[in-house]
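Deliverable D5.2: sample structural annotation.
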Amino acid sequence: MTEWLNQEAWSAFCEMRRLKGNRAPFTQRAEQMILNRLEEFHRQGYDTAWILEDAVINGWSGVFVNNRTPMRQLSTAEQHNVSTIHQMVSGAIKR
């Protein structure tokens, strides 16, 4: 698993999906697709643990971002990247 994925939240989601049985089969392909989606949400800055917990609480078979989904705390490297991109965009706009 990846370091950014909260193992407790992921385990709870997997357990919930497996208990759904044939209503929402949790195949290896479905698992990989959900992990890919979570990775994209992570790259966009969303709190993937919250997304997984929200899915478990609501009994959802998938993972979703909505208007209540919080952003996660960015690492120092990510903050630097955002700052660099902001400076580049600001410089391009001024020209």
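Annotation notes: The two ends are 44 Å apart (CA to CA). The longest helix spans residues 76-94.
The annotation will be released with the project's public dataset once the embargo ends.
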